[in-house]
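The step that takes the researchers longest sounds almost clerical: writing a folded protein down as plain text. Below is the pair of lines this work produces for a single protein:

——
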Amino acid sequence: MSHDPYASSRETTEGTVYSVTGGDWDSVVTEIGATKEERVVVNMGPQHPSTHGVLRLILELEGETVTETRCGIGYLHTGIEKNCEYRTWTQGVTFVTRMDYLAPLFNEAAYCLGVEKLLGITNDVTERASVIRVLMMELNRISSHMVALGTGALELGALSPMIFAFRERELVLDIFEMVSGLRMNMAYIRPGGVAQDLPEHATSKIRETVKELRTNFKDNAKLLIGNTIWLKRTKDIGILDLAGCTTLGVTGPVLRATGMPWDLRKTQPYCGYENYDFDVVTADTSDVYGRFLIRMNELEQSLRIIEQACDKLDSLIGQPV
């Protein structure tokens, strides 16, 4: 076996065990220390106020510019795939919902769609169950974007947008609690449908929340869009163009910020997304500001989908889920 500086290994009774490290930063620090150049190496994470344990970065700085980085995966590897090998199809949902605690419903949906395909029951999922899945996923998209926008603003020195973003997120989490009994890690989407139907008058409550969110989103956008300080800290920063995204396999708002309208809800529809009217939001800046604008504008598209889902659910009352 060839030597891998990023993942040393040892043989055990259970097979080869890899010890994943951050790579060759020790040698990097030594080399830089031997030169007279004005460069600084910063060890960021895995326990760092801005990363919350998700990764470790060794950053090489020249002034305020990051010129090189080494990345370690931090504490994100929790052995979910191995754990699922010893569980039933249904039990697997409780594991995948924790893969990304900010977007649990998307993990559940991806897992359940795969299970349904393997079991040959894709067409057995009722329309009402599919609509509820879409409704919950779009609500989850809003709550996830709120964290991204709020914490992103906080890291750049803007406190008020973070407070307002988490205020809107609470409205969504209240709906999750009303529907599933839990605010996070719901394990609500199950192979074959969803865990339970919506409670009575749920669509009315959701419509009221949508109305409130739409008003608040417009007010929140005024805090940052056009803000001189925000523009200076986001425009032409963190450039990753289409070629870079393609090479690294980057998707989502980062890819769409390059002008590429790649959204699986349109390009490879699932859960009936082809039956909803919404736009794929793009930008052409390839920078932090473009990704910010995409997330802001995607909030309105999610609200549109949620409204359409509520209308569909009102006409599908009584269907199994």
Q: What stands out?
A: The first strand starts at residue 7 and ends at 12.
